[in-house]
Each structure stands twice: as structure tokens, then as C-alpha cells.
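INFO batch 0412 | record 1 of 1 | parsing
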Amino acid sequence: MTLINEDFLLTTEKAKELYQSVKDIPIYDFHCHLSPKEIYEDKNYETITDLWLGHDHYKWRLMRAYGIDESLITGDGDSFEKFKAFINMLPKTIMNPMYHWCYLELARYFNHFEGVQHSDAGELYQKLNEKLQQPDMSPRNLLRKSNVRVVCTTDDPCDDLHYHQQLAADDSFDIEVRPTFRPDFYISLNQETVHKAIQKLEDATGASIDSLADYIKALESRVDYFQEHGAKSADQSFTEVVLTGLSEEEAAAYFSDLKNGKTLDNSKTRKLAGYLLTRLAKSYKKYGWVMQLHLGPLRNNNTLQYERIGADAGFDSLGNLLNAQELNQLFDHLNQNDCLTNTIIYPHNANDHQMVQSTAGNFTSKDVKVQLGAAWWYNDTKDGMIQHLIDYANIGLLSEFAGMLTDSRSLLSYSRHEYFRRILCQLIGSLVENGEIEDDPALLEGILKDICFNNAARLFQIENIKEIY
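INFO prediction complete | emitting C-alpha cells
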């Protein structure tokens, strides 16, 4: 029997039954890093190396751990040699999520079920590349093949959203591709970034920025612009929770200090960030956007490699800097200032899942949903997802969970939704067979469909996206 088969990860009859109820429902990918340009231009990838290894820091980290030279990872090495190096490593990745992810991708998109160690690397490379040239492997058709209904990309506030506009105007493509406002560069200001942020906003808005009031007005105008072009969410990522309590006068003085070349300490920069986030959150709430918060990663830790390769290259670590008191203070501040909107919080460290979910419960009501987000980054594993679902359910309502997302730059990553759904059904099915959950098929299938699609559809409120029954 091949690794990827009909019952992959499903070991009970109830799990198999439940999986049948969700395996074919659409995907609502409300956070990813796909390129709207690639989707619009719809050009087939030339090689599996481009598609598989081009932007995947998960794979890059493993390749370094295996001792592969950087020239075959992020360098200018030959495309086939890069592929061969990765394929030679892949069978050795057992128990790492990459092992399952890659074999799912090979099975679902290339109809290749055999372990790669049983194939000649050159022949496999040729086979996969030939498959990539077929019409059904273009970016748009990969999305169709994956049964995707919504793609929410991640976009700089100063992006002109040209490709989103072109996609929205294309009647031949019925998948929703929506922008997401990603302002953390413009919120977490320091002496080195403030002038670049100001310049980009001036270029995008055509307005002169001489004060904090001008700066905020420019950011708010970009929120308006994103709203006009279909945005439903703002996503921001911080290593530490931003701080509150800064007055308008103090915030203006801090901004002026940065603009004039002065250095602010960490506490002051976090307070200025908290002031800016509060002002932006008012606009988010006005438009009914979902605020997504990715919290905790320590990024770009290897200075030499950052200088050689740049950001997002696989040199980021789990952080331990989330503070429960600060997180509660932030949400209490947003709530008191009438700018708390529907919010999803993704802690980078799994040790923070229960703390985040308990914090979310303090501020959730009939009018506003605050919740723990999907298992993120280093937690995006079989064991990590299971523990995340348990943590979510122990402190909140699992039936209200907004569900899985790809958080990926790869069009093949939609197989991770299948992975998540199998893990979810296995967990619930096992609890039913253990006598811990009542065996009510209609109820359970409804809950699973909500988690896999409907809850996201309700939360993000794209007008023509209907729930699945």
C-alpha cells in the first residue's frame, strides 16, 4: 500500500465516515502569500524546482540541516541539481511535516504515489516538468483543481493592487482573489525605517507627510483604497505585543523624534506602534474587516545569512516574548475605544495557545469574535494541529473555529487543507468511538463543515460566498 491512500491518517471507521463529509467542500484561504501577479498572468512554471523550492523556507531549513550547499538551496545552482538534492533528502524527513506535505503534493497534483527513493531523479524530474507544462497545471487551474473559492493575499499598504483589479475584472475567472492590508512595516517604526515608510506613503497618496497626523491620514486613506478593491482583512505581525496608554501628544512627539533622527527605546517604539494600531483598528472596524495578529517570531537571527540572502529565508525562531497581561491590556484598550473588530490571533509558540484562547474569550461577544487562529508555522504539524485543536476546544468552542489556511507562497500547498481535514476527522472520530462524543452524524458533519469553510465565510463576509450545507 502506498503512503498516500484513501485512508491516509484515518484509522477508525467513524473518522473515515466524517472525512467523506468534508473532503470535497471548497477551500476558503483567508491568509496566504501567493502572488496575484502569477495568478493573473497564469503562466505555467518551467520546472518543479521553481514551483517547489523557489520560495519555501521550510524546505530550505531542512536542506541546510542535511548538509546541502547553499548554492543548491537559495543560490545559483543548477535547477536539476537543486531538485536532486532535495529529492535525495526527502525520504529522510520522516516525522517532519515536509514528508507528508510533499507526498500529498506529488499524489494530488502529479499522480505520483511511489516513494521518491524508488525513482531515478532524472526521470522523475522530467516527468514532473512535463506534467507542469499541461494546461491544467497553470496557476489558475491549480487553484481550480484544489477547489479553492477564496484567496486572500498579503499586500503592502502602498501596493497599487493592479493585479487584483485585473483579476476582479476578468469574468472568465470565478475564484475570489482579495487583497489583505499588511501594515506592520508602517506600525513598528524605528529610526532606520521611518523615512522609508513616509516616502512610500507619500508616493502612494500624493500627499506630504510632515507630522504624525499626516502619517495616520495617509495610512487611513490606504485602508480606504484597499476597501474599494475588495479587502476584508488586515494582517499584522509583531515579535512582542504592542503597548497602549500613549496620548496623542506623546505619540506625536515620539514620531517627530524618529523623523528627526533620534532613537527610541523598545518601550517607546512599542507604545507608538500601539497608538498607530489603535488608530488603524478604528478603520478596520468601520469596514467590518477581520484583524489578524501574528505574534511572537524572532526573525532574521543569522546576520551573515540575512545580509547575503535577505528576509524570509529560514532563519527565524520560536519566540517566548508574549505577555498575557499586555495582550489583555491591548484588547481591553481596543474595546474601551470602540475599535475592537473581529480578530484572529496566531501565537508562534504553542505554549501560548491556551493563554491566547483564554484572552480571546474575555473579549468575544455576540457582536465581536476574538479567537485563536490555526496552528502556525512551527506548529503546522500533525502533532501540532492535534494539540492546537485540543487547546482550542478545552478553553473555547471548537465549533466556532475559523479553520485552516495555507500561509504559503506555493500553489501546491492547498494539499495542506486535506491534511488538516484528515487530522480533524481522525481526532473527532476517535473521540466518538471512545464514547466521549455522541454519535450524531448530522450534528458532527455540520460542525466539521463549519470549521472547514462556513465559519470563515461568516467571519470575512464576502458577499457572493455562500455557506456549504
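INFO post-check: The CA atoms of residues 82 and 135 lie 25 Å apart.
INFO record closed
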